[in-house]
Each structure stands twice: as structure tokens, then as C-alpha cells.
Design a protein that fits this description.
Elements: H1 2-18, H2 29-43, H3 55-94, E1 101-103, E2 108-110, H4 112-127, H5 130-144, H6 153-195, H7 205-222, H8 224-243
Antiparallel strand pairs: 1-2
Helix pairs in contact: 1-2, 1-3, 3-4, 3-6, 3-8, 4-8, 5-8, 6-7, 6-8
């Protein structure tokens, strides 16, 4: 009984360290470890190790479980990176990129909208119980990929490739309306400069684009709950495709 719990805890804990929303630094490492062991105790009750265990075999199986947990965690993390990418697009086109700073919670540099959207996505995952679906997908991975089984790296690579395309698609879907408005504002400023060159319309560009971004930002914010639900479904589907 102890050995299945240890191996399951390795997979679950590595997954929780990498996959959102549990990878946020606001959640202490001790809590993640305790949660990983608790979930492993619940999942490993019906699990068995199919081989005779030696020290070398135990190390190999632990490494295999760590690779499996890391691969699934990276897949889920890539899917949910679309929300922060949408915020970064808004920062870049709205003139907020100059306010870029290091976020100590995620150890990434992004502008105000990038950080704000990432925090909103974490909150929505907890409020909508999306985190339960993510944990449920991890739990089902033990049925398709028992303890000691090696993750199909080819299938993982295929899902990661598809995940990158989904990341760009979701980011454009979230930030698309605001991007279109900012693009039209640039076009309008360019036409105004052609009509009245002495007006120096581009000097008004930065405050105008910031005003538009702050005014219409609620439009993209209203789309986030639906996008997070869709991304949760994509993450669960990706886990199922890798471990089937």
C-alpha cells in the first residue's frame, strides 16, 4: 500500500507544482506537497505495482511518474497561458507595455493587463470549480496510464504543438475586439496626419489608446468566464489524448 501511494504522490505533486491554478506562488510549497500526498492516498487505494520492486526499479518508476506528472502539467499550463497572452497583446497595442515589471508570483515579466488577466483566470478556475475538472482529469490518467507505465512522449509532443495553436487562437478571441478598435484608432490617426500634417496627431496617440483600452477593457473582461470554461475543457481533452 505504501509504494503505490509514494509513486502516485510523485505524479500528483509534480503536476500540482506545474499546472494552474495550483502552480501560483501564493500557494505554499508545503500545501502543494500535502495536497499531493492527500490526493495520492485517495487515488492509490485500488492501485498495485505490477513488478517486483528493487531500489533501481523504484528510482526508475519514480522518475517515470515525475515525467508523466510534468508532461501533463506543462500541457495544462500551456493551455491556460492563452489568458495571460491575451493580456500581453492588450498591453502591447494599448501602450501599457512600458509598465512591464517582474511578477514575483509567476516569475514572469508582463504589463498590467497581462498580470490582471492571469489573476482573473486563477480566480475563475477556483470560483467555477474548474480546478476540480483539472484534478479529475489527472485522476483519470491513472486508469489509462497505471503506475510504472511510461508516458507516450510522441503523443505529448503532438498535443503541445496543438496547444500552441490553441493558445494563439484563444488569445486572439479574448483580445480581438479591443485589438480591432486599437487598430482602427491607429488608422484614424494616420489619416488625420495625412490631412493635417502640422497637427502631429500621433502625439495624441498614446493617451488616446490608453483611454480606449481602459474604457473598452470591460468587453474583453466579460468574455473571460466563457474562455476559461473552454480552456478547461481543452485541458481535460488534452490529458485524455495523451494518456489514452
Amino acid at each position: 500500500m505504501v509504494l503505490p501511494v509514494i509513486l502516485a504522490a510523485v505524479r500528483v505533486t509534480v503536476f500540482l507544482v506545474i499546472a494552474p491554478p495550483f502552480n501560483h506562488r501564493a500557494i505554499p510549497g508545503t500545501v502543494k506537497a500535502m495536497l499531493g500526498v492527500g490526493l495520492a492516498l485517495a487515488l492509490a487505494s485500488s492501485m498495485t505495482v505490477p513488478v517486483e520492486v528493487t531500489a533501481a526499479t523504484l528510482i526508475a518508476m519514480a522518475l517515470s511518474e515525475a515525467v508523466t506528472g510534468a508532461g501533463l502539467g506543462v500541457l495544462v499550463s500551456l493551455v491556460f497561458s492563452a489568458v495571460q497572452s491575451a493580456g500581453r497583446l492588450i498591453d502591447m497595442l494599448g501602450g501599457f507595455e512600458l509598465g512591464q515589471a517582474l511578477d514575483p508570483m509567476t516569475m514572469t515579466s508582463s504589463g498590467p493587463f497581462g498580470r490582471f488577466y492571469q489573476l482573473i483566470a486563477v480566480v475563475l478556475l477556483f470560483v467555477s470549480d474548474g480546478y476540480q475538472l483539472v484534478v479529475g482529469g489527472l485522476a483519470r490518467s491513472f486508469d489509462a496510464l497505471p503506475l510504472g507505465a511510461m508516458l507516450d512522449l510522441g503523443a505529448l509532443a503532438g498535443q503541445l504543438t496543438e496547444g500552441v495553436s490553441q493558445l494563439f487562437l484563444a488569445a486572439i478571441q479574448v483580445a480581438g475586439p479591443l485589438i480591432a478598435v486599437l487598430f482602427l484608432a491607429d488608422v484614424g490617426l494616420g489619416l488625420l496626419t495625412r490631412v493635417a500634417p502640422a497637427l502631429n496627431a500621433f502625439a495624441l496617440g498614446f493617451p488616446l489608446k490608453i483611454l480606449i483600452t481602459l474604457t473598452l477593457g470591460s468587453i474583453t473582461l466579460a468574455a473571460l468566464p466563457g474562455v476559461v470554461d473552454w480552456l478547461t475543457d481543452q485541458a481535460i481533452r488534452g490529458i485524455g489524448e495523451v494518456v489514452r
